[in-house]
Amino acid sequence: MASNEVQVIGGGLAGSEAAWQLAERGHSVVVHEMRPVRGTAAHRTEKLGELVCSNTFKSTETTNAHGLLKAEMRQLGSLILDCADQSRVPGGSALTVDREIFSQHVHDRIHAHPRIRVSREEVTSLPDVGIIATGPLTSDALADAIRARLGVESLAFYDAIAPVVSLESIDQNIAFRASRWGKETMDGAGEEGAYLNCAFTRDEYEAFIDALTTADQFTAHEFDSVPYFEGCMPIEEMARRGRESLRFGPMKPIGLQDPRSNSRPHAVMQLRMEDRGGRMWNLVGFQTRLRIPEQARVFRMIPGLAEAEFLRFGSIHRNSYVNAPAALSSHLSLRDAPQLMFAGQITGVEGYTESSATGLLAGINLARQIDGHEPVVPPPATMMGALYRYMREADPKHFQPMNANFGLLDDLEGVAPKLLKDKAKKRELFAERALTAMAAWRDEAGIIPTAIRG
Ligand SMILES: Cc1cc2nc3c(=O)[nH]c(=O)nc-3n(C[C@H](O)[C@H](O)[C@H](O)COP(=O)(O)OP(=O)(O)OC[C@H]3O[C@@H](n4cnc5c(N)ncnc54)[C@H](O)[C@@H]3O)c2cc1C
Fold first, then answer.
1. What's the pLDDT at 227?
2. Start and end of every MnmG N-terminal domain (predicted)?
3. pTM passes above 0.80
4. Strands (E), 72-216
5. Is 401 near ligand 1, meaning CB less than 6 Å away?
6. Best label site of 75, 105, 270, 287, fewest CB within 10 Å?
7. Ligand 1 pocket: which of 17, 34, 146, 158 to mutate (most atoms within 8 A of CB)
8. 142 touches ligand 1 (CB under 6 Å)
9. Residue among 4, 7, 48, 17 nearest 361 (CA)
10. pLDDT in tens, 56-102
11. Is the predicted pLDDT of residue 231 greater than 70, yes or no?
12. Domains and CATH numbers, the chain
């Protein structure tokens, strides 16, 4: 192994993007990819950049959070998006690709780059300098090495994600702010007070349990089967174990008074603030395997959530991810080793586009640091910067992986309230602000987008 080669571990979406960004900035790179020497339970080929499941990078419209993130990535020059463009198949406004053509493109571009070498081997220890982009199915030996270095609590093996809804979509004439036992209100600002409560009557609860226990569930692949343990049990599974189990579990009403009736509700669903700005609210204890349309249908039966806008849907998966707010720096490096960085799904982002975006920035930032510059992160007005802020500032005690969504962005300032009521207009304004901020940030940081085709 040449000693001046930069190490990128994992040749998936994030690792391929990161390697390309480093190589295009003049650095020699070795990508360590364990397939086919050792497979994962989801990958089927030896190709770099294999898409393990769906064939879509989601929307291209900037009024959609995923579309906005892609537009920002294009401002920096993304290999992954270029390969996606070249393998596009009809999918309306979504960037939908032929999976095989896509990974063939990524594979060929990486192999053809004169400064990139691909080494087929499982890495089992951490380098001093490099990028770890081994994804949600990181091999056990490397996972052990990460846990040994970061601390046992810092690497999760499963995600048990509860849905998140936007504050503005919660009917606050119904949902009330309080904490159990009236300890504090939101104004008291303590953790105990940071809840919105949706109270159920007996009839509402019974109807909800009926809907929950009969709703359509995602059937896991074998490799994805999660041993249910406390904190990971799907809400629908808990409900199936007895009609009252939620009322004695996550929906217990004790210590709460509904101000509308001045009495204790039959059951309560609590919402906990997910971000410091209070724009995103997590349905506490509602991790679920219900299919997405079913989540929308059933959870909108919750009093106060009839019009809920879901910023993130729930899921339960095999997923190795680092507790970034507890263990990583703001540019997603080890805190005591700024040139040893994480990228991709292992950082706690969720999704193809998000994983690629963190690979892109990791490649840029490692190149900057090796060249003697400080790492940089886009401002939180951008979707990419807002995701990084989430991974820096989310509560480490409740950290769950996150996808791009508008709830991550700061509110718009100086805009007439009438315009803010128009959701489509509001998103246009978010996008305009984000793309302007990204271009300004890129130019100020002196980042030259990689010339993609060639
Ligand atoms: C089963 C499954 C389905 C998913 N479906 C979707 C979906 O439909 N849409 C979506 O947006 N997101 C999906 N995701 C989430 C996520 O976006 C993808 O997993 C995405 O591929 C993550 O990109 P990545 O680069 O972080 O990891 P990966 O693309 O998984 O790349 C990581 C690479 O590292 C390699 N590796 C692992 N350990 C080592 C080691 N020790 N040494 C060397 N190499 C190693 C792996 O072989 C792999 O090639 C899914 C995840 C899983 C697990």
1. 63
2. 6-373
3. yes
4. 88-89, 94-97, 116-120, 130-132, 155-161, 164-166, 176-177, 195-200
5. no
6. 75
7. 34
8. yes
9. 17
10. 999 999 999 999 999 999 999 999 999 999 999 998 899 999 999 99
11. no
12. 6-158+318-445 (3.50.50.60), 163-313 (2.40.30.260)
